[in-house]
Amino acid sequence: MKNIRNFSIIAHIDHGKSTLADRIIQECGAVSERELTKQMMDTMDIEKERGITIKAQSVRLDYVKDGEHYILNLIDTPGHVDFSYEVSKSLASSDGALLIVDAAQGVEAQTIANVYLAMDNNLELIPVINKIDLPAADPIKVAEEIETSIGIDATDAVLVSAKTGVGIRELIDAIVERIPAPSGDPKATTKAIIYDSWFDPYLGALALVRVFDGEIKKNQLVKLMSNNEEHQVLDLMYPHPLKRQKTNAIKSGEIGIVVLGLKDVSIVNVGDTITDAKNPTAEPALKYEPAKPFVFAGLYPIDTDKFEELRDALNKLKLNDSSLSYEPETSIALGFGFRVGFLGMLHMEVIKERLEREFDLDLIATAPSVVYHVYLTNGDMVEVQNPSELPSVSQIEKIEEPYVKATVITPSEYLGNVITLLISKRGMQDKMTYLNEDRVMLEYSLPMNEIVVDFYDKLKSISKGYASFDYEPIDFKEGNLVKLDVKVAGEVVDALSIIVPITSAESRGRALVKNMKEIIPRQLFEVAVQASIGSRVIARETVKSMGKNVTAKCYGGDITRKRKLLEKQKEGKKRMKSIGKVNLPQEAFMSVLKMD
Ligand SMILES: Nc1nc2c(ncn2[C@@H]2O[C@H](COP(=O)(O)OP(=O)(O)OP(=O)(O)O)[C@@H](O)[C@H]2O)c(=O)[nH]1
């Protein structure tokens, strides 16, 4: 055990995590340069096939230093904040982490968020400054930024170029020297944590585990502690990008893949503890809490006959993505669909796109909503994921909404803009740190509701793309909130209701109807669009009637142009949903959350 090193790599997007991982794998001789190119391509296919949550690029490597043989286990982590639940399980399975920072870009928000997770797990951090081959590289400045923002000593940061290979051997030596060997009791009963799971078409549900105490043996009857499922271990393997090696036991301190022969991956939960069924460990390795969806949206087939197809498609996606949750829902406006829970906005986009592309479904997605804790006057608390289901005002004692801790790093010239944006989103400053004279780190608490739609795009546009952002859910806080309804041609469209702070309800209502007016295509008759709180109308706009047909403009002559217009119109129709007499395009459902 003293010669094992378990480590992960954490980095902001594009700082070179995958390139560096490939270099380390290559340097340890696990794959040749030729295989590496092949492997990278294969990986991309698999990633595409399996979608964004899948990592499983953990790998067990052999390394010899000063005549001593070491086993290096590179534990992969997903690269996006939406998956911080999984990141934290990967980190809990590691004893140290490489903190990669781009030598030209410096520390970014995602770096910080990941470092907090690593520190929660008491990991030994090795700062690594990558891309030192770039002309704009400034490793000294970046080392100072690491010290100021994270408060760790970066004088011994390892300087590398994952592209040219400079510094890679020094980096691996640093892993061996600086990351502690695993601790754990090899003689105790089995205690292992599942840090990833997925469905393999040949082998069934697979669990990627880190063993803390004891060992997992082939044929052993094991128990999954979160659901008390007992199953026999059919096979064990060490993870490798090209060739998994079978083994008879995964020992204390090691990582490995456990084959349980199950058809249903939802039994094998990330974060769960595996122990011996006959002689179980008293305490799990980690307290198990399932991944919680933070964002909910309604997904409805445009063609109402496709409801069953949508259900089958969601079922199929769930096989590989246990974090996906959904239940049937009915909307007066949209008919039968599902309320789907997502880990975050990226997760939502990926799922929607896969449903449309891989399953050929045309969908309407309602505006995403967070979960509200609604305390009723009768003492009960209900969780509301769909704004249209908010109980009436007279039944509500108070509403609590989820908050996040947000980290934003921006060049100082945009600081004013960024602070204005954060304040407009009801943000409260916790901390402001100058990383150096040109860059500032802001830490704010703000309602999650304010960041679900256009926060990131706005932040990028007011900082010319330079500010970075990351967040972590923290807790629930009371908010002064009301439901804003939208009436189209006199009818409340339930799928358009949103929950907003009372202080901005009027301005939101006005912006919303204005927005809708632009989006709703002219119909053959006049359409009133109204925003209301309860029975009180707070804003109104009118979509004028059209009367003429679209091709009237193309005074006869140009037939191709005419055809193009008609095709465009047809395409447009496909994406429309008729609500009463009115056709509403998909954007209408998202636009309710746009402020301007
Ligand atoms: N010049 C230079 N470019 C590098 C280096 N390392 C990585 N890159 C490039 O930086 C870009 C991002 O690298 P990736 O390895 O994909 O970064 P990542 O952090 O894994 O990004 P995600 O997978 O999107 O999270 C790619 O275009 C790489 O070729 C380096 O040392 N020098």
UniProtKB/TrEMBL annotation:
<dbReference type="GO" id="GO:0045727">
    <property type="term" value="P:positive regulation of translation"/>
</dbReference>
<keyword id="KW-0648">Protein biosynthesis</keyword>
<dbReference type="InterPro" id="IPR027417">
    <property type="entry name" value="P-loop_NTPase"/>
</dbReference>
<dbReference type="InterPro" id="IPR000795">
    <property type="entry name" value="T_Tr_GTP-bd_dom"/>
</dbReference>
<dbReference type="Pfam" id="PF00679">
    <property type="entry name" value="EFG_C"/>
</dbReference>
<dbReference type="GO" id="GO:0003746">
    <property type="term" value="F:translation elongation factor activity"/>
</dbReference>
<dbReference type="InterPro" id="IPR013842">
    <property type="entry name" value="LepA_CTD"/>
</dbReference>
<feature type="binding site">
    <location>
        <begin position="130"/>
        <end position="133"/>
    </location>
    <ligand>
        <name>GTP</name>
    </ligand>
</feature>
<dbReference type="InterPro" id="IPR005225">
    <property type="entry name" value="Small_GTP-bd"/>
</dbReference>
<dbReference type="InterPro" id="IPR000640">
    <property type="entry name" value="EFG_V-like"/>
</dbReference>
<keyword id="KW-0378">Hydrolase</keyword>
<dbReference type="Pfam" id="PF06421">
    <property type="entry name" value="LepA_C"/>
</dbReference>
<dbReference type="Pfam" id="PF03144">
    <property type="entry name" value="GTP_EFTU_D2"/>
</dbReference>
<dbReference type="InterPro" id="IPR031157">
    <property type="entry name" value="G_TR_CS"/>
</dbReference>
<dbReference type="InterPro" id="IPR038363">
    <property type="entry name" value="LepA_C_sf"/>
</dbReference>
<keyword id="KW-0472">Membrane</keyword>
<dbReference type="InterPro" id="IPR006297">
    <property type="entry name" value="EF-4"/>
</dbReference>
<dbReference type="InterPro" id="IPR004161">
    <property type="entry name" value="EFTu-like_2"/>
</dbReference>
<keyword id="KW-0342">GTP-binding</keyword>
<dbReference type="Pfam" id="PF00009">
    <property type="entry name" value="GTP_EFTU"/>
</dbReference>
<dbReference type="GO" id="GO:0005525">
    <property type="term" value="F:GTP binding"/>
</dbReference>
<protein>
    <recommendedName>
        <fullName>Elongation factor 4</fullName>
        <ecNumber>3.6.5.n1</ecNumber>
    </recommendedName>
</protein>
<dbReference type="GO" id="GO:0005886">
    <property type="term" value="C:plasma membrane"/>
</dbReference>
<dbReference type="InterPro" id="IPR009000">
    <property type="entry name" value="Transl_B-barrel_sf"/>
</dbReference>
<dbReference type="GO" id="GO:0043022">
    <property type="term" value="F:ribosome binding"/>
</dbReference>
<comment type="similarity">
    <text>Belongs to the TRAFAC class translation factor GTPase superfamily. Classic translation factor GTPase family. LepA subfamily.</text>
</comment>
<keyword id="KW-0251">Elongation factor</keyword>
<dbReference type="InterPro" id="IPR035647">
    <property type="entry name" value="EFG_III/V"/>
</dbReference>
<keyword id="KW-0547">Nucleotide-binding</keyword>
<comment type="function">
    <text>Required for accurate and efficient protein synthesis under certain stress conditions. May act as a fidelity factor of the translation reaction, by catalyzing a one-codon backward translocation of tRNAs on improperly translocated ribosomes. Back-translocation proceeds from a post-translocation (POST) complex to a pre-translocation (PRE) complex, thus giving elongation factor G a second chance to translocate the tRNAs correctly. Binds to ribosomes in a GTP-dependent manner.</text>
</comment>
<comment type="similarity">
    <text>Belongs to the GTP-binding elongation factor family. LepA subfamily.</text>
</comment>
<dbReference type="GO" id="GO:0003924">
    <property type="term" value="F:GTPase activity"/>
</dbReference>
<dbReference type="InterPro" id="IPR035654">
    <property type="entry name" value="LepA_IV"/>
</dbReference>
<keyword id="KW-1003">Cell membrane</keyword>
<feature type="domain" description="Tr-type G">
    <location>
        <begin position="2"/>
        <end position="183"/>
    </location>
</feature>
<feature type="binding site">
    <location>
        <begin position="14"/>
        <end position="19"/>
    </location>
    <ligand>
        <name>GTP</name>
    </ligand>
</feature>
